[in-house]
Structure formats: structure tokens, C-alpha cells
Design brief:
2 copies of one chain form a homodimer. By secondary structure, chain A is α+β, with helices and mostly antiparallel strands. Helix content of chain A is 39%, strand content 20%. Chain A is elongated, with a radius of gyration of 29 Å. Chains A and B meet through helix 1, strand 1, strand 2, helix 2 and helix 3 of A and helix 1, strand 1, strand 2, helix 2 and helix 3 of B.
Chain lengths: 456, 456
């Protein structure tokens, strides 16, 4: 009987897990230095939690079930409803602004395809309790800080920024009525995913000429670089290629993007609307510049959501970045380090039967002192075979136990440096003195020297 | 509309999450130094995967559902079936022994009670591909290494060790037939959870006298300390209180436990059988010595399981340790550090309007250099209020920006040490030189001094 991982899910063997941990560590490190604190929630939530935010249609995209008390539950497809629920429950006790990040695994019952799996990881950062454009820009900065941390460059990935109110104003100027607005947003969001005829039909349904979006279609296709506040002041021709409607809503954000020093990572693109109806202000997506893949990340301002989940009115902005597309982009660019699995500090070798009696005792001593120590499970005492096993494991040092190795105060072991060509070897006493255990001290000093050399 | 976390699940706000990360870090650190490599699998698996291992009855304890392709799936209640599936799929490609650890979240559809939730974390360590008692003892050592890492002592928690074959031999000597054996194991496993009458009825059903388990009931209640191999050689009375049947199966393990130096953490208790039918050799549980709580951890040898999942015959030993009981024990003993949330390295203060223009720029500079930097979202320029906010955040240094702070090469900031009583203050240039940015270098040097002082 052979089983496979369910469709659209992944097994993380040690090499894949090492990459996953590398990525999670980077997400966590960047979040913390940007002042976010980590949170987590349950893997499943009441099904209604998702219906409230996204409507009845979401149910088909969820893995849902009933518990024995006939409560309807669903595996989380996103983290925002959990975040909103947690904030609504404690709104008055939490100092503001609330800056939270999380790294949940999420599940969606959709057809697996490139860049889209049924289970994936998503890094979320949210700032709740301030409507300042500083918070908008700080979310974008945090995402960019992560991209730079993973050695991506601004010519390889771009943050494409838009604003719900700007898009709405243009649509409204083109004759789209208030109640057609959601359908219009959805149509624009899907534009690059559907055939031109379908887009044209959609426009007709909205009461617009198939080729008649006029200023809008031109405008939302027009991408101009961030930093326009600065450009405007030095460029007399600015007004001719930067439509005036964009300034009012985007200028406060633009100024902060310049202050954060990330204008070269950002561009404006009013074709970005994000499918989710709950955004109220800026929206953004991060794309690889060749545009071949789905978005690496997406987010925006959602000032009404906490209230929807029973909390007080609280402005909020945030974004999510999945692991699947990000890993594909990094892999394409050759930015996945080749060997992320840590080798042991020490590999312990029993070169004689008497020496071998002490392998596990020495391993215990070193491990308890915090050293990563391994040994062979083979019964061979052949030194060169065992040294090869140590080298294959990527060990920094071999500790060789032989007939001189006893538990008395005169016991000794040999330490062999496996990363110098001459394989330098030294004898060390196997005994306790006033500074602790001599073998432990000796190895700790050696490893500290390595660290200082790397750091300096 | 207010929502709550589903019954038996937890919300991890920043303080709870900081503890969870502290625990996960300890699990990960101890695993790695003991030579285990991390793996992960999907949050849900085919329902059959659990039926194969545990029978049809397991279905009631699972959260299960169908996907749109009518595949029966279940949220994982344990990690071992995933591990066995992954090993069976790659058995020939993996170097042996396979030493894997994982920290999955698991879900069980049971009634929440003290020490038992519907969603919890479990640390798993397994050694697959060797039947050596060294591997048995190494699993126990790794668990003990974790307990010691969290500052528990051998008088507070004990590993209670038993052996399936020893228990089986005693039951068989008492007249229990081969096909009654599983029921007998289950009865013994539940002994401390059921009333004495129910236990007596169970014995009758097995064809044993209610008070007639004779040697067995006495034996399995008798707990003697690990290290009996050594004691036996020096203690002439040993045979009188250590029943002979235990020696044959337990002595090889006992010798390794002594070698690993953990005899004081271990005791033998043949009342430990573990409910799960798949164990084939040693079994163990870790209990708080007062016995008030459920087991902290449990494991044992399961030599037939990889085959059951379609792999080659491969001996295996491992254990799981949940976060719920462990956290309760550590909390009872006062071993949960009070504040685990890291304060920022730097809090940036805009003391004048002109200085405030540069807050986000300086934040960006410091964060990109790896420093944890925060600032106030308030618009006040009141220095003492802002210094209070910095201190409340637990910041190490305040960086104060004022009218002297410009982006030109003569710009400067003041740095205030928030952890010395006199609040030492120094001016630093805000400019690039051949060593990088002067402010970054200054702060990095200061923080390195802190680290060296802590380390030395």
C-alpha cells in the first residue's frame, strides 16, 4: 500500500525544509526589525468568518467540515479574518498602532497550477489603528526590505501601486454608476487573465463602449515611476504625462515612499485594483518585471474590516506574500543558496573498541554544552572510513577516541580539523577543570574563532 | 457580529506567540545538536492513511472532509503516518539511519480538557533504519536534553520506560492468549484512567481472576531506577527486588542510558504500554513526578510501520512531545521567562519638525543594516513624551533628530543610552564614510559591546 501527498500539497524533506526555514527566518528577521510582533491563530475557523468577509461564494474555495457539535468550520484560506477577529476581541487592550506579522499555512480548494498550490505559506504584515500614509509606505518598505534581504534588485521586481479612490473617480467620470462599481473593479482586476473579447463584453455590460473607456483605459495602462512629488518640482512637462487625478490621493503616499528611500522599487499602475472588495485606499502588488508570473505579494488599506468583525472603527493597512511564487522567482534568478543544511560542529569517532565505549558519553557532554555532535551508527573501527563519514556529514572537527580515552582524569582524545588541508590534529585532555570541561572549552574556542573570522 | 476562536483552539497574541517561539526554538536547537534534520508535510492527508495505521475507529477522532474530487481527507492528528509515507516513498534514496524531527500542528476532534486541546503543537524525533539500542537511548537522551535545556530537573520529571516484549511475556505467563493480547494492552494502558471495578471486569473478560494477576500486577507497579546494569554488579541483593524477566529485554537499553549519562532521569515502569498497537519494542512516557498531569511525551520502537505504508522493512524508534502539558508543567515550576518580546535596538525621535522629516529615512537606513528600529506614529515633538514612549517600548538607544539633522554631509543626530542611569548622550554624524554609514557603525559597535558583555 503506497500513499502520496494529497494533490496540491508538498512534502518537505530536509533539503526543502532547509529552504523553507531560510525563508521563514528572513520573513521573521525583517518583520522584527521593522517593528512588527508575531501572532498566530487556529488552523481552522468558523465557516461564517469567511462568509462575512467574502460572501457565500467563498465556500467553494474552502476545505470545510462539521465537528461533532455540528459547527461549520473551514481550514483558513487567508489570515486577515483571524487577525480582524483577534483585534476586534481585544481592541481596547492593545496599544496602537498594532503592528503584527504572521507566517500561517493556508489552504484553498482550487485547481493546483504554476504558482498556486492547495497548501502554501503566507507572510502577513499589518498596521492597524492609524490612517497615516507613513503606515502605508512602511508596509511597502517592509516588503521591499525583504526582497532586498533575499538579494533581489529593483530592476527584477517592482511594487505596482494604485489607489481605490483614484480608480473609482476615473470610472465614475467615465459614467460607471455607484452600484456597478464592484463589477467594474472585478473586470479590471481580471483584465490580464481574460481574452480581449470578454473584457469588451464586460465593458458593454457596464454601459461603456467596448473601445470607449477613453481617458481611463489609457490612464490605467500608463505606468509612471514613484517619486513623482520630487519629479514634479523639477520637471516642467510633468503635468502632460502625469494625469492630475492621481496626485490628490497618491501624493501623500509618494512623499513617504521617497522618504523611505524606495522610489526605485515602486511604480504606479492604476490597473492594479485587487479582486477583494474590502480595500478602501491604496492597493499594491509586487510583480517580477518580466511579468511572467503571478503576483509575489499583494495588499492595501482596509479601513472598514475590523468593524465588520465586531470591533471599533479602526483604519488598517497590510499585505501578504506567499512562498510559492517567491521561491520560483528566487530560483529563476539563481538566488537560492545551494546548501542550507548545517553540518555538525563535531563528528565523534571510536577508533578502537575501548574508545568506542565513550562515544555516546562524549556526544552527551558536547550536546549539552550546545555543540552539534554526531557519530557513526556503524560498528566499524576503521579510522579512514569513519573520517570519510565525518567529512561527508560536513563536520567541522573530528573527535577521535581510542585506548587513551578513559573516564579518568588522564583520559585524552585527538581533535582533527576537517576544514584545513593539512588536517591539523591536537590532543586534548578529557577532564573537568575549573573552567569547565577541557574538551568543550577547546572546541567552543575554536568555533568562536571561526565566527569572528566570518564576522570580521 | 463577534466571533470567537473555535472550541479547543488558541489565539496567539504577541506574548503567547513569544513563548511559542521560545519553545519552538528550544525544540529546534536541541534537535539539530542531536543530529536530527527537520521535515514537514501537508496539514491534511488521505483519510485512509490514518485508517491503515489505527483502524476504522480513528475516524471519529479526526476532522475529515471531502474535496471536490470526492477524495476523503483528514487534518493530521499525528505526524507518524506522514513520516512513514515520506520515508516509504524515498526509502532507497535516503542515507541511513534517517534522523528526522518535525514541529507540526495537529488536530483531534476530542473534548477539550486540561492538557488536551483540539489543536496543538507536537515535537517529533525519529530514528529510522537502525535497530540499535543506541538509537533507543538517543531518542530518550534527546528528550531529556530538551527538558534540561528548559531548566527542568530529574527530581521534577521522569522518563518511565517499559518494553512491549517484557509486558507480553508476563501476560502470557499469566495465561493471556495471543489474540487477547491487544485487549490486555489496552486495559493496562487505561488502568489509571478507569475505576478499579472496570479494571477488574476487564481482567475477568481476559480470563484472569479480578485479583489474580499475581506476579504481574505487582511487577508492573514496581518501579526501579534506571542504571540497573551498574547496580546489579555492586549490589548482592539486586535479584530480590529486580525481577529477572526484565533484564533480557531491557539490559541493552539500560547500558546505553548509563553511557549517555541520563540514568537519574529514567526509571522502569512496566505499567507503561502506550495505547497504540504499532509499538514493537521499548515504549516510554515522560511524566511530571507528582503525576498530576497527563504525559509530557511518549514514544517507543515501531519496527513494522514503514512496511505497512509500502516501504521496505525498516526498524524505527521515535517520540512526540506536545506543547500543552509541557507549558503547564513549566508554568507550574515558574520556568517561563517573564518577558520574551524583544525590545527595539533603536527608537527614533523627531524632536523638531525639521528633524521629523528624516525619521523614516533614518529608520530605513538602520533597518536595512539589520537593526531593529521603531519610531512614534504620533505627531508630537515633545522630547520627554517621546523618550517615555521609547523607554516603554524597551528600546536600547534613542536616536534624536532635530534641526541639526539634515541630509547633507554635516548633518548630525544625538544618541541617548536608555539603559544607563545617567542616560549618556553622544552626537554622531549622519553621513557616509569609507566604513559605511557613521550612525549605523556607531550603533552596531555599541550593540556588539552589549553582546560581548553578556557572553563574557
Amino acid at each position: 500500500m503506497k500513499f502520496q501527498a494529497p494533490k496540491g500539497t508538498r512534502d518537505f524533506y530536509p533539503p526543502q525544509m532547509a529552504w523553507r526555514n531560510y525563508l521563514e527566518d528572513a520573513w521573521r528577521r525583517v518583520s522584527v526589525r521593522n517593528g512588527f510582533e508575531e501572532v498566530e491563530g487556529p488552523i481552522f475557523e468558523p465557516l461564517d468568518l469567511y462568509k462575512v468577509k467574502s460572501g457565500e461564494a467563498i465556500v467553494n474555495e474552502l476545505f470545510h467540515f462539521e465537528d461533532r457539535g455540528e459547527r461549520e468550520l473551514a481550514i483558513r484560506p487567508e489570515f486577515t479574518p483571524t487577525l480582524a477577529r483577534m483585534i476586534a476581541a481585544q481592541a481596547n487592550a492593545l496599544p496602537r498602532p498594532i503592528k503584527w506579522f504572521s507566517i500561517p499555512n493556508l489552504c484553498r480548494a482550487e485547481r493546483p497550477q504554476r504558482g498556486r498550490l492547495r497548501e502554501f505559506l503566507q507572510w502577513n504584515c499589518d498596521i492597524v489603528g492609524t490612517d497615516s500614509p507613513v503606515a502605508d509606505a512602511e508596509c511597502i518598505f517592509t516588503a521591499v526590505d525583504l526582497l532586498a534581504e533575499l538579494k533581489l534588485r529593483p530592476d527584477q521586481v517592482k511594487v505596482r501601486i494604485s489607489h481605490r479612490q483614484a480608480v473609482q473617480r476615473i470610472l465614475s467620470d467615465s459614467g460607471v454608476s455607484e452600484d456597478q462599481m464592484p463589477a467594474a473593479f472585478e473586470l479590471i482586476d481580471r483584465r490580464e487573465k481574460i481574452p480581449p473579447e470578454e473584457f469588451a463584453t464586460g465593458l458593454t455590460k457596464l454601459g461603456l463602449e467596448p473601445d470607449g473607456l477613453g481617458e481611463f483605459t489609457t490612464s490605467f495602462q500608463q505606468r509612471y515611476n514613484a517619486g513623482f512629488t520630487e519629479k514634479k518640482s523639477v520637471d516642467p512637462d510633468w503635468e502632460t504625462y502625469c494625469p492630475s487625478w492621481g496626485h490628490e490621493v497618491l501624493e501623500p503616499l509618494d512623499r513617504q515612499i521617497v522618504n523611505f528611500g524606495i522610489a526605485d522599487w515602486c511604480e504606479y499602475d492604476l490597473g492594479i485594483v485587487r479582486g477583494l472588495a474590502y480595500y478602501t485606499g491604496i492597493v499594491f502588488e509586487i510583480h517580477e518585471t518580466t511579468g511572467a508570473l503571478r503576483a509575489l505579494a499583494g495588499g492595501g488599506r482596509y479601513d472598514k474590516l475590523i468593524e465588520l468583525f465586531g470591533g471599533p472603527p479602526m483604519p488598517a493597512v497590510g499585505f501578504g506574500m506567499g512562498d510559492v511564487v517567491l521561491t520560483e522567482v528566487l530560483s529563476d534568478k539563481g538566488l537560492i543558496p545551494p546548501d542550507l543544511r548545517p553540518g555538525p560542529d563535531v563528528f565523534i569517532i571510536g577508533a578502537t573498541e575501548q574508545g568506542a565505549q565513550h562515544i555516546t558519553g562524549v556526544a552527551a557532554l558536547l550536546r549539552r554544552a550546545g555543540l552539534h555532535a554526531r557519530f557513526s551508527y556503524k560498528t566499524t573501527r576503521n579510522l579512514s572510513k569513519l573520517l570519510r563519514e565525518a567529512a561527508d556529514a560536513g563536520a567541522r572537527f573530528a573527535v577521535i577516541l581510542d585506548d587513551r580515552t578513559t573516564s579518568s582524569s588522564t583520559g585524552a582524545v585527538a581533535i582533527k580539523d576537517l576544514q584545513t588541508k593539512d588536517g591539523q590534529q591536537a590532543d586534548v585532555a578529557l577532564a573537568w577543570n575549573s573552567n569547565g570541561h577541557s574538551l568543550v572549552r577547546h572546541l567552543q574556542n575554536k568555533l568562536r574563532q571561526d565566527l569572528n573570522q566570518q564576522g570580521g
